[in-house]
Write a structure and sequence with these properties.
By secondary structure, the protein is an all-beta fold. The chain has a single domain, classed as Neuraminidase. The protein contains one helix and 33 strands.
Length: about 350
């Protein structure tokens, strides 16, 4: 019996609660979008996970230069005034802390304490009231976690992947492992609940919400080698979680694997920017990509004027703001650069 390549693909391994889509990737030129400059952030920092609330972009914590320093700085950007404003300091300094908006409040979730390499994932959640410019303690996660993806859908907060402690007293970068863990927090009940695991474990990915579904893309895996050393390998996969059905779907991967990238949703499409690579050589990326969920296809977008990783991205209207990050691979060379991709209305 002759078996075609197409038929072979249909035998892909499926997991419970995972549907695999095998539409091939098509990369084509994307002409829309022009970059412009905007006011630099108040502090040069990287490893940022920003959020939009009421038309402003909020950024918390981050790694400084050198990367032994990390921050409790918290600020917001007003695009109408092209101005950053310093706000109430985080209760504790963090880097890789993820901001997510739900019910008119901002939630600062997890992240690491400590400068490199003495990182320690944290489980605390801090809740910010923008009207009062005040932080308070929230309901902690079930376990410490950092470098994951967070998103809010219908007032509930979702956390996927990232790195968790390999042992209870982990206090070093090497004492953490990547996870597939997926959880949901319901602010109305104050309860965390377990969800079906993600198809793959990864950290430093990008995530957005499009039409009620959560898209998780890129990132990397930290793999332990036979000699005990760690190898940081980028991944290109795109996985989609539907909170309504609790199902995962694997979609067309990025044309290029990029870790430590930034992501934003605009016009029903997923945009990703920059990132870094450790093997086979260390470098940062200028490449940007746009994904259309309707066609399951990727296109090249206008590259970053300033290549970097660990940057933040947020969309307001037809503009995607990209700010901060590191100009070189690793935790040093933080920047306050702020560039804006202006898309056709």
């Amino acid at each position: 019996m002759n078996i075609t390549f197409h038929q072979l693909r249909q035998f892909a391994v499926s997991l419970a609660a995972v549907a695999v889509v095998t539409t091939p990737v098509l990369v084509r030129a994307q002409s829309a979008g022009v970059w412009s400059k905007a006011a630099p952030a108040g502090v040069a920092r990287q490893e940022l996970y920003p959020e939009v609330l009421n038309g402003r972009i909020y950024v918390a914590g981050g790694l400084l230069s050198p990367n032994t320093g990390y921050s409790a700085h918290f600020e917001a950007y007003d695009p109408a005034a092209d101005q950053w404003t310093r706000l109430a300091t985080l209760p504790q300094a963090r880097h890789h802390i993820a901001l997510t908006a739900a019910g008119g409040l901002l939630y600062g979730i997890g992240g690491f304490s400590g400068g490199f390499p003495n990182w320690q994932a944290q489980s605390e959640v801090f809740v910010y009231d923008a009207n009062a410019d005040l932080w308070r303690s929230g309901v902690a996660m079930t376990q410490p976690r950092a470098e994951g993806v967070t998103a809010a859908v219908n007032g509930k907060i979702y956390v996927f992947g990232g790195r968790v402690r390999a042992n209870s007293d982990a206090n070093h970068f090497n004492d953490h492992v990547d996870t597939k863990l997926a959880e949901m927090f319901d602010p109305s009940s104050g309860q965390w609940s377990r969800l079906p695991d993600a198809p793959s474990a990864r950290n430093s990915a990008g995530g957005v919400v499009i039409n009620g579904k959560i898209y998780i893309v890129g990132g990397r895996q930290v793999l332990k080698q036979p000699d005990g050393s760690l190898r940081q390998l980028n991944v290109a996969s795109l996985e989609v979680f539907d909170p309504a059905t609790l199902k995962w779907e694997v979609r067309a991967p990025m044309p290029q694997a990029q870790g430590g990238l930034a992501a934003a949703a605009q016009g029903g499409k997923l945009y990703v920017f920059g990132g870094e690579q450790w093997v086979p050589e260390q470098k940062v990326f200028a490449e940007s990509w746009v994904y259309d969920p309707q066609s399951d296809r990727w296109s090249s977008a206008s590259p970053l004027p300033t290549p970097r990783h660990g940057l933040g991205a947020a969309a307001i209207g037809n503009r995607i703001h990209v700010f901060g990050g590191g100009l070189g691979a690793g935790g040093n060379a933080a920047t306050a650069t702020h560039e804006v991709l202006v898309l056709a209305p």
